[in-house]
Amino acid sequence: MITLSGKSVFGGIAIGKISFYKRNEITIKRSHVEDTEAEIKRFEKAKEQASAELQQLHDKAMDDVGETNAMIFEIHQMMLEDLDYVESIVNMITTQEVNAEYAVGTTADNFAAMFAAMDDAYMQGRTADVKDVSERLIKVLSNSDHGAIEMKEPVIVAADDLVPSETVQLDKEKVLAFVTMYGSSNSHTAILARTMNIPAVIGLGEDLKQEYDGKLAVVDGMDGVIYIDPDARTMEAMQKKQREDLEKKELLEQLKGKENVTKSGQKVNVYANIGNLSDVGAVLKNDAGGIGLFRSEFLYLESESFPTEEQQFKVYKQVAENMAGKRVIIRTLDIGADKQAEYFGLDKEENPALGYRAIRICLTRPEIFKTQLRALYRASAYGQIAIMFPMIISVDEVKKIKEMIQVVQEELTEEGVDFRKDVEIGVMIETPAAVMVSHELAKEVDFFSVGTNDLTQYTLAIDRQNQKLEPFYDAHHPAVLSMIRIAAENAHREGKWIGICGELAADLSLTGTFLEMGIDELSVAPGMILPLRKTVRECE
Amino acid sequence: MKEFQYVITDPEGIHARPAGLLVKKANEFASNVTIKKGDKSADAKRIFAVMGLGVKKADEITVCVEGEDEAKASEAMEQFFKGNL
Fold first, then answer.
1. Which ranges carry the HPr domain (chain B) (predicted)?
2. Burial of A342: CB neighbours in 10 Å, binned 0-12, 13-18, 19+
């Protein structure tokens, strides 16, 4: 068995034979032409034919992948007709007395270089489009066909890279997966693979060899791995993964776009918990209504020193934009206890869970906190960001936080930086103290979010890391459930909403209880979204 | 000559798809349409030039329209920017 890893573009598991895309490579030779007029005519004619081909591809793509994705072929047509592009080719033929193929090839290289030099990953991806258009022209000029793939049975299509026109020409019914040596996740092939719901792994590099043509392989689009000649154990594991994936997709199909509403008409928001930017894909794939807990710690833990405002801003902005107007609740720094970063210079503590952590660090080291708040407010202009604060035990803390927010807002206004004034702010309910003063807290904030892991630990005085305490531990302890109920009642009394983002939110045996308490939002790991939504719809 | 300023609000800026639509729109008119960003400018009827400007969100651009149908063209271009970018 050979295992190769690349970058996943679209999830899913495919099992089948590899078929290498055979392209008729053309080497362009430079040759001298006497009659440049005739050569230009030959080029013009080829351009017409290429344009007609693109029109056909456009029409096919309209049927296969919809108007938005088909637009690329219209853009290819425009590139083909672009005056700068055409002038460059014609000039080269006239002044250098060269053949049209050479003029097109050289012009293509020049234009591709322009895109490659741009400071923008998306635009850099457009070099592939220039090359695709130009290769089409060259193939028409040299009367060669476009290459193809033998697809008698469904296969895993392998290639060095596929250009949009090649992807679209493939018989969709017979493509199990795409695997390529190169390519970027911004390429149209990647975009099309996603639209066509086909597992795709790119960037496998030179390890993906022509000699694998015809071999049996498994493509794991979730982890970006392919197994060639898989052994029995891998095969079995992958078949299981494939079945689970299909079941999930079926569930998604059933639930997509449907409201999370119980039989009696009670609605609840089902959001996702995430710990990194890379999780956003899973959130969207599982059709979550928003992000209920974005743990900002990774920014600090993955860094060697304090992340700058700019670094943080970029991350928050991207999440907000990717979620396209859906609510994104970002929790401010929750470091300390079991999550440590050297450069914070925190002391070793006797009792870290009850120690110097989270909001306690933020309120005593305002420079760290202010940087994060500035980044959050700046990002608020790009979507629906909400901010929540961890480990709150008193109203006084909330007032201090709000003073700090006031300062940040004034600074940004003065600097003329865009931000939203109406960003929702909330507190985590994860200490018994917060529950006991929740009637006061509710007056100060827009929402509550219950962190059940810490709330359970602090309520029951049980360290969950300690296995000896297992017999005493009861996740459904009535004391914890009472705490949640009290917080919910106090939130609602002030017209505020309350969510749960701890592990209990994903405990399907409690969904009914939470709904009965009037919990407004449940936030769970992306993989639990669909089962939870299904459960909600089955509740009375 | 007609001229107007516009600040891009599309998060991706003038990427491939809106560039295509923009070129299409500009080609509906006889007037010359020029887009300026800083000291760079591009003919709005040429897709490579438009994409080459690398216009991003929050960039301010100036659009100049000159020709026999400039009044109509300028208005249509302004509408286009507001609606698409």
1. 1-85
2. exposed
Any catalytic annotation for residue A362? no
Interchain CB distance below 8 Å, A123 and B54: yes
User: In the block, which residue shows the tokens 């929750």?
Assistant: A334
Confidence of residue A308 (pLDDT cuts 50, 70, 90): very high
- Mean pLDDT score of chain A, rounded to an integer? 89
Domains of chain B and any CATH numbers: 2-84 (3.30.1340.10)
Give the pair of three-digit tokens for residue A490: 């106090």
CATH of A36-141, one of 3.40.50.2300, 1.10.8.60, 3.90.226.10, 1.10.274.10: 1.10.274.10
B45, pLDDT greater than 80: yes
pLDDT at residue A112 above 60?
yes
Whether A129 and chain B come into contact, CB under 8 Å, resolves to yes
Query: Sign of the CA dihedral A79, A80, A82, A87?
Result: positive
**Contact with chain A for residue B51, Cβ under 8 A:** yes
| Bridge partners, B65 (sequence order) | B2, B33
Catalytic residue annotation of B: 15
CATH class of A266-538: alpha beta
Give start-end residues of each CATH 3.50.30.10 domain in chain A: 2-23+147-236
- Residue-wise over A183-195: b if at least 16 C-beta within 10 A, else e? bbbbbbbbbbbbb
What sign has the CA pseudo-torsion A493, A421, A409, A385? positive
Chain B partners within 8 Å of A76 (Cβ): none
pTM for the predicted model, two decimal places: 0.57
| Strands B60-66 and B2-7, sheet pairing | antiparallel
Asked whether the beta carbons of A238 and A230 are under 8 A apart, the reply is yes
Cα A63 to the chain's mean position, in Å?
Answer: 27
* C-alpha to C-alpha distance for A199 and B26, rounded to whole angstroms: 39
Q: What is the CATH number of domain A2-23+147-236?
A: 3.50.30.10
Closest CA to A452 of A396, A514, A528: A514
Strand order in the sheet with B40-43: B2-7, B60-66, B32-37, B40-43
Residue A278 is predicted with a pLDDT of 79
> What ipTM is given for this predicted complex?
0.88
3-state secondary structure labels for all residues of B47-73: HHHHHHCCCCCCCEEEEEEECCCHHHH
DSSP code of residue A87: H
Distance from CA of B69 to the nearest CA of A (A): 21
CATH 1.10.274.10 residue ranges in chain A? 36-141
Alpha-carbon span B72 to A82, nearest angstrom: 24
Tokens coding A158? 């392998």
Euclidean distance between CA atoms A132 and A104, whole angstroms: 12
Residues of chain A with CATH 3.20.20.60: 266-538
List the Cα angle A144/A171/A284 in 5-degree steps.
Answer: 120
C-alpha to C-alpha distance for A355 and A339, rounded to whole angstroms: 12
Q: What CA–CA distance (Å, rounded) separates A320 from A332?
A: 15
Instruction: Tell me the β-bridge partners of A341.
Output: none
By C-alpha distance, which of B42, B15, B40, B29 is closest to B70?
B29
Q: Which of B17, B48, B56 sits opposite A82 (nearest CB)?
A: B48
